[in-house]
Write a structure and sequence with these properties.
The protein is mainly β and 101 residues long. The chain has one domain. Helices cover 5% and strands 50% of the residues. The chain is built from 1 helix and 6 strands. A hairpin with a 2-residue loop joins β2 and β3. 18% of the residues are buried. The C terminus is likely disordered.
């Protein structure tokens, strides 16, 4: 697995497969992010300010942990962050925008 910085932020609607009520961690995915020429399977861990109990969460992806095959994408879409692979993997920080339905 590789950390990839998405240069152009992508707005993705997530449907959580597992929602935890313990503080500030929600496992989402796997989801599919449309990055240019292909769909990329992403498993995302979400840090939130409060527990999430809704069906849909919209997040703006900036940093995702994906399979290394994503490195073959065009460099103007993503940029590998090798300095992040040296340390212990951190949680992906995104800002949740809850659907008010």
């Amino acid at each position: 697995m590789t950390y990839v910085m998405i240069l152009r932020p992508i707005l993705v609607t997530l449907r959580p497969t597992l929602v935890t009520l313990r503080p500030k961690l929600v496992m989402l995915g796997p989801i599919f992010v449309n990055l240019g020429p292909r769909l990329v399977k992403v498993r995302l861990r979400l840090i939130t300010l409060r527990p999430i109990s809704v069906n849909l969460v919209k997040v703006r992806l900036r940093l995702v942990k994906v399979r290394s095959m994503l490195a073959k994408l065009r460099p103007n879409l993503v940029k590998l962050r090798p300095e992040l692979m040296k340390v212990r993997p951190k949680l992906v920080k995104v800002r949740p925008m809850l659907d008010k339905v």
